[in-house]
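Hi,

I'm pasting everything inline rather than attaching a file, because the server keeps stripping attachments. The sequence lines come first, and each chain or strand is labelled.
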Amino acid sequence: MKMKAIGTIHTPFADLAGMPIQPAGAAGVSGTVDVFEEYQDGLQDLDGFSHLVLLYVFHRSEGYNLRVVPFMDKEPRGLFATRAPKRPNPIGLSVVQLDRIDKGVLHIRNVDMLDGTPLLDIKPYVPEFDSSADVRTGWLAQARKTVETRQSDDRFR
Amino acid sequence: MKMKAIGTIHTPFADLAGMPIQPAGAAGVSGTVDVFEEYQDGLQDLDGFSHLVLLYVFHRSEGYNLRVVPFMDKEPRGLFATRAPKRPNPIGLSVVQLDRIDKGVLHIRNVDMLDGTPLLDIKPYVPEFDSSADVRTGWLAQARKTVETRQSDDRFR
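And the predicted assembly:
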């Protein structure tokens, strides 16, 4: 299956080192999404939503290992039990806050992507679809409490 | 960018007609994910998580329109303000419940995909990353309350 960029995500993060590892660690960090002109007509009604799901390409990632040591742990874990960027299909997913839309430019907050990230899709974030209660989070259960202070390093470069 | 299937999702839904339109409308509906053997080593530690984010291909969708009338509305809306399956990159996203893993087979609940759907990625669902509070949901704000009783029809066939 072939995928194509429909826009570009711009953020303050030119390099993996020092980048927040999830939007929860990027609270308040602003960025923009430039949607290519041919797709801008599909943005109508999007400004009614406060949060968006962005799907994008981990464009600096190459190859993958099925066991990885995540940023938030010291043990190797199964790749699919992590959010590591090197994956068989290197698709990233982030829930971001939408501040406003100026023509084809989305102004967003809580960005955790690299500058220049190719955008694949925008979906409205809807709690009834996208959030669950009574959640268990395995090895992350302890580690995730520290996510707001963790940053990326060069292990996935 | 080229994407490849890493497994196949099996559900009771052989056809779009009559299918629930979101996992919230598929409460209790069981399915399985057959992960191809070469990727099964990446499933370790996944069984600690109660919920997963599945990314997959809307494999029956062809083409797209930038304005669509969603299942839950009567007005045409911008495509990116909807979850319609016909998209420039036809990637679907569902949060499902994980019951257990038998070797390479994930037993899941709350499935809303077609049988035979190609799997692209599995990510652990983590509330700190994937859910937001104080959410506004635009045109869906009223419509979404009815999602549990709505079903697909053939408009996106």
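The first strand of chain A starts at residue 7 and ends at 10.

If the labels don't parse on your end, tell me and I'll reformat.
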